[in-house]
Predict the 3D structure of the following.
Amino acid sequence: MRQILSCLLVIMLAGCRGVDRRDDAAMTRFIDDLMGRMTLEEKIGQLNLLAAPGDIVTGEAQQSDVAGPIMRGEVGGLFNLKGVDKVREIQRLAVEESRLGIPLIFGMDVIHGYETTFPIPLALTATWDTSAVREAARIAARESTASGICWTFSPMADISRDPRWGRIAEGVGEDPYLGAEMVRAMVYGYQGTDPTSYAPDEMMACVKHFALYGASEGGRDYNTVDMSRQRMYNEYFPTYKAAVDAGVGSVMASFNEIDGVPATANQWLLSDVLRDQWGFEGMVVSDYTAILEMVAHGIGDLAEVSARALQAGNDMDMMSYGYVGTLTESLASGRVSEADIDRACRRVLEAKYRLGLFEDPYRYCDAERAAREVFSTEHRAVARRIAAESFVLLKNSENLLPLQRGGTIAVIGPLASSRENMPGTWSVSTDLKAPSTLVEGMQEVAGEGTRIVYARGSNVCYDEALERAATTFGREIPRDGRSDRAMLDEALRVARGADVVVAALGEPSEMSGESSSRTDIGIPDAQRELLEALVATGKPVVLVLFAGRPMTLEWEDAHVPAILNVWFGGTEAAEAIADVLFGDVVPSGKLPSSFPRNVGQIPVFYNHKNTGRPLGDAQWFAKFRSNYLDVPNTPLYPFGYGLSYTTFEYGDIELSSDRLSQEGSIEATVRVTNTGSRDGVEVVQFYVRDLVGSTTRPVQELKGFRRVSLRAGESADVSFTITPDMLQFYNYDLEYVYEPGEFDAMIGGSSDRVHTARFVLE
Ligand code: BGC
């Protein structure tokens, strides 16, 4: 019997080979035919997405926990399985040992690279360089697809204005325009531009977490979200929509609720908005156990929540076993229809078809290419370049940076000598032993004439339990058994013997990311005290700050002469940090998120509304204005901020006309001059303000940006084209409109330092 079916499979696959996967009618015929032969259980099986169990051993895949369910046709896909041989073996079980031989789809959290690891997404966003971000995603796709992986759970498009939320590290910052640009670049990088037919080195992207996950109350992970529709459409949806418009193949529903219904079962979100309004035709997958979690949310038992998820438009169930566990019975009882199941099954099969898995289930298992390309010298060179682009110079008194080569440099801090900590959160396929430590990277880049000396100085934090929680998943930073005093004394001795101190401090990588929310987002206590002691030596101190989020740095800003924020830069971070510290690369990153002065200011973001009682030009407090008694309204470092080793000056804005007709466009031009003595790159930012609207409008909205390379002394005219389209917004009735009236155009090198010119939309 099995032989007959295998024969059928061969005929079926042969029928599929050579077809044009862009031909929708051919795809429909193929899937109609296949579904016509599937049992109900096999259809439901396609909706079941499982995490790879730890017991898959090369050569013995058939003994693993998932082998039985796969051979019975109860599994549609597997994720986070690393190793092309393992993927091939598991795929063989589906293709040769299951009744219909339907191939599995293999997914993975390839969030900022496969083995060649790029900066965390928040840091990638800080490059403001869409071509770099696309290139990073492209390399991630090439490495993944050689290794058996054809589906990545990226990009994460969740806008967040709350740095307490650990997952801000995985997102694209606080701004919908910048975020949308980044998300689009990632989708194109992973998928290419034709999502109807993937090449063998392209993978399906999955935009997540749909929707609003970054707005969880109090910044606590998985928490409730409650938001007006205006805010959703204008500020939080554009990044997800950008992915859909770019042809993203799949969408992951978020854990949080929206209007009281968890996203995973939210019909309005997953069907009305996503499919009817935005025209999405791909597949929707739940987040990890998100269907089951709706029992805890309190909207029903597993059968009820599974039925609701399916009917809302959630096609695949990740790890809840809700669909395989309950849908057969729900169909028998009439709770769901066969059409509900068929619709979801078809979407999964369509994704597999577009990926070419029916033509060749091993299409993405290319061991030879994997050996050649994964973590190749070329890919690592790109990662190093992009990492250096992502760092943001927050402060640089008296041009302390770049460091001179020669003399003695003391590198101090518990993050200075770790490899595992360098890549950053969500780097599941990274070889954690591969990155250099900062000390090694600095020595390599500095060369022999420079003495690099190291002392640890402190543990990550005084509280051992907190430290353990923040250094999990193989990212251990072994705790030093010496007393705090002994570590500090050693560090001070080393610092005093050096010409300059580089303090490598901040968050360990698992202090941000999933389930890593914090209420105190300063440098952890032990390290902060170490920093104070280092500054007190009188030696010049450069703070190299590791951070997965905007941190509170008021003390540091007041007392430390130079601060380079390096986020988590990926496998090549150490060398890239050294490239910037020694001035081989001039920093050019700009903040994608505001750095608050203190936690009480959160949320603080640049594109806020004016209120009826704005503070106006006052720096700090005015009675009966919208402000705080104890802190200014402004963040410490605003959105778009970032210094260079050179300086840039902006001229006034020249408008080609101060009247914009509804069919027309005008140009806003500024002259930007590199007024320093080094060549550099400036991110020129273009904002608008709609002065009067039918609903209130933000005081500033990013509408364009350009990275401009200028040699020392050089000037360039930088222009932005203003069209009515870019002035559109969702009004009270959620119509996407522009409204005639006055607007301010603003151009500058940071959201708080702009030149302004007024124009009228007629
Ligand atoms: C995360 C997702 C991720 C999934 C699979 C979940 O916990 O929220 O972002 O893609 O796990 O690993």
